[in-house]
C-alpha cells in the first residue's frame, strides 16, 4: 500500500485500562483501504480491548483513534457505525430474531430505527447473507442456531452495515474448517470494495495464510508489525508465546510449526 493513501483508521499512542490494570500501552498503527491485517498475540494481551477502543466502545485513557482522519469524539454514533463495524463471537441479540432480521439491524446506522427499508437496504442485506452463506438460514430464529451459525449471523450483520473498517474478534470461533475457509474468502471479497479488515486470529497458520500483514500485540504493545513470515519468525513472537517457531517453505505457501523451547 502506498504511504500517500490516508488511513481508514489510525491509533496514536493509545493507552487503555480495565479497572486498575493497564492493558494497552502506547499502541500506534494505521490501516488503509483494502488492507487485510491479522492481529495476533497471547491470551490477555489486550487484543479484544484494542478492538473495543477502535470501535468507540471503550474510551482510551491516553492517545487517540482517528477514523478517516477525524478523532472518534468528532463522530456521531450513527456516523461512526456507518464507518466502523465490530463483530465479536459473544455478540448478543434477541433470540427470537431471525437471521435476516439480525442482518437488517446493520442497516439502522444508515436509515434509523423507524424509517422504512429501501431497495438499497434490501440489497445490502441480501448481499451480506449471500456472502456469508447464511441465505439458507435467513428465516431461522437465532435461538435455534448452533454457535457457528450465530457467528455467521453476526458477520452478516456487520457486512450489511457496509463499513469502511471491519473489526473482527476471533471470526473463526465456533466455525468448522469449511466455514472458516468461506469466512476468509468473504473477508478477501469485501477488501476488494476497499474495506480495511482487522481480525483477531488465534490460529497462527491460518492468520499467516490469509493476511498480507500481521501485528503482534504483546505486553500491551505492538511488538511486531509486518509480513506474517517476518512476524512469526521474530524473536518477539517466540518470547510472546513461549515457543520456537519454524517456517517450512512449500510450493505456493509456507507451513509453520510450533514447539516448546528445549
**Estimated radius of gyration:** 18 Å
Strand content: 25-35%
Determine the CATH superfamily.
Answer: P-loop containing nucleotide triphosphate hydrolases
Counting DSSP E segments of at least 2 residues, the number of strands comes to 12
What average pLDDT do the residues reach? 92
Can you give a write-up of this model?
By secondary structure, the chain is an alpha/beta fold. It is built from ten helices and twelve strands. The protein has a single domain, classed as Rossmann fold. It has helices at 47-55, 77-83, 99-104, 108-111, 119-132, 147-160, 177-191, 204-210, 228-232, 235-241, and strands at residues 9-18, 21-31, 36-40, 62-67, 70-71, 84-87, 165-169, 196-200, 213-218, 221-226, 244-250, 253-259. The chain has a six-stranded mixed sheet, sandwiched between helices. Strand 7, helix 7 (177-191) and strand 8 (196-200) form a beta-alpha-beta unit. Helix 5 packs antiparallel against helix 6. The chain starts with 8 loop residues before the first strand and ends with a strand. The mean pLDDT is 92.
What characteristics describe this protein?
10 helices; 262 residues; Rossmann fold; globular
